[in-house]
Amino acid sequence: MSFAHDEPIETGALPALPGPSLAGVEDYLALLKPRVMSLVVFSALVGMVAAPEGLHPVLGAISLLCIAIGAGASGALNMWWDADIDAVMARTATRPVPAGRVQPGEALAFGMTLSVGSVLTLGLVANWLAAGLLAFTIFFYVVIYTMWLKRWTPQNIVIGGLAGAMPPMVGWAAMANAVSLESALLVAIIFMWTPPHFWALCLIKSDDYARAGVPMLPVVAGPDETRRQILLYALALAPLGVAPAFIGLGGWAYLAISAVGGLAFVAHAVAVYRRREGELARKAAGRLFGFSLIYLFALLAAVLVEKLAGLPAVSWA
């Protein structure tokens, strides 16, 4: 289904403002999207802890910092390019670039400097496989998702979600200088989790996206189709979330948390599917969005705690 605008969107950032920058330290921190970065850092840490021991703890900490900086660089470049969209959306209008506190050129230079620096440092401190995966993640988020998919297809968050799913594999590669089935499964879980998580928010903020001309699924296909897709993804995610317990990545605690959490995720998705009108529909979407964060955190935390505590994996023999 195509998505037409009354007027074409001008791609790229807003024109630079005259005069000196009004940015403070807090504005440059905001460019890094710290809330998004926190999930990246946590999921990368899980990948590092779950991987076979490889790096000295200090080098591991520096590697994690590089991954965090790479994620922040992606956020800065995203805000540079999307300044025109952000300016007309209520939830993003106060970001540093559309609000005029950071000029577009400054955001671009900041993001590019951090991108190059984080990749090169990770390659020197850890290995070039991890650095290459980090570079791919930054490129995919900025170029493939931000510059292309976001304004072109309602499947933007599905395909573009790969960038947000990659940190566990980058973290694993930094420690082990290899990728593995375990790290790929963590990527797959986050990849499958992203669409229902984000579409729940889109159901609430669809007017914002419509005003900005961004073809998110609720704007293009309507809220009912979005609810159907959320339910389908939830049904696929629930068994996938349990899978680490079957390949030696998760223990008994992980198995219990993932099983109960998966059922609860599906129950929330069913509620979103059934409640389609008024405030009840909005509340159902909000509850799913909030629970989805708890669900993913619980899965990753279970892996992290079990590995740090040396708890055994589930034995099916």
Key terms:
317 residues, mainly alpha, Tetracycline Repressor, domain 2, Four Helix Bundle (Hemerythrin (Met), subunit A), 13 helices, flat
Tell me what you see in this structure.
The structure is a single chain. With 317 residues, the protein is mostly helical. The protein folds into two domains: 1-179, Tetracycline Repressor, domain 2 (Orthogonal Bundle), CATH 1.10.357; 181-317, Four Helix Bundle (Hemerythrin (Met), subunit A), CATH 1.20.120. It has helices at residues 25-31, 34-50, 57-81, 83-86, 104-125, 128-148, 156-165, 167-176, 181-212, 217-220, 223-242, 252-274, 278-309. Helix 2 crosses helix 8 (167-176) and helix 3 packs antiparallel against helix 5. The chain crosses the membrane at residues 28-51, 58-81, 125-145, 157-178, 184-204, 230-247, 253-273, 285-305. Pathway: Porphyrin-containing compound metabolism; heme O biosynthesis; heme O from protoheme: step 1/1. It holds the Pfam family UbiA.
